[in-house]
Amino acid sequence: DVVMTQSPLSLPVTLGQPASISCRSSQSLVYSDGYTYLSWYQRRPGQSPRRLIYKVSNRDSGVPDRFSGSGSGTDFTLKISRVEAEDAGVYYCMQATYWPPYIFGQGTKLEIK
Amino acid sequence: QLQLQESGPGLVKPSETLSLTCTVSGGSISGSNFYWGWIRQSPGEGLEWIATTSYKGAAYYNPSLKSRVTISVDTSKNQFSLKLSSVTAADTAVYSCTRDDSYGPGYWGQGTLVTVSS
Questions:
Q1: Residue B64 contacts by C-beta under 8 Å, 6 or more apart in sequence?
Q2: Do A100 and B49 touch (CB under 8 A)?
């Protein structure tokens, strides 16, 4: 199975400052149709996960534009341009290129300093 | 507004079968381009995909759990279900049902904690 590796695992950020989370896959996530099925999820404390980004850089409906995704092949990044208090939680990358199975990264805990 | 609600016993004995149901409201489980799935998260662990089904019953399983898992769908009740047999303490987790689109789980239920203990 492909392995998804996130870094850092813990990310303290000051309000209003940018944040960046890296996700690396053990194999290229480019599917035979040319698309890359890499998503990002946010899990706020006490809430169910919410998808933020799909296909590397497409924001889901209702996701603030301070969230952006980028990358290609095996290296991907989730960026928050200016962190707000509601952004605290755990962020996961997930690959769907080699589904089944869906495989998630270990998670990155973003905390507000 | 779409809602997914998990239901089932919160406590299951070792070696028994865990059974959960996800009730879908605010949308039909059938006649759509969506799939329906289950994901779990053990305490202190990451997210683990368990299984996915279409409304017609085409099922896909995580190879690591395939021998113990059954996913099924009941379109008349707008529900889908999960059965996990021969459970051990390692199966203690929060189980969430999901609606999956072409890119993966796009909508999640709140999740339900299932503890395996005698």
A1: A101
A2: yes
Nearest to B96 among A48, A104, A105 (CB): A48
Tens digits of per-residue pLDDT, B19-78? 999 999 999 999 678 999 999 999 888 999 999 999 988 999 999 999 999 999 999 999
pLDDT digits (tens, 9 = 90+) for B62-118: 999 999 999 999 999 999 999 999 999 999 999 999 999 999 999 999 999 999 999
Q: Is the peptide bond before A49 cis (omega within 30 degrees of 0)?
A: no
By Cβ distance, the residue of B47, B108, B111 closest to A104 is B47
- Minimum distance, in Å, between the CA of residue A81 and any CA atom of chain B: 23
CA distance to A76, A112, B48, per residue, from A6 (Å): 9, 19, 15
Whether A40 contacts chain B with CB within 8 A = no
Q: Which two tokens stand for residue A53?
A: 């980004």
Asked if A49 and B105 come within 8 Å (Cβ–Cβ), the reply is yes
- What is the amino acid identity at position A36? T
CB atoms within 10 A of CB B34: 21
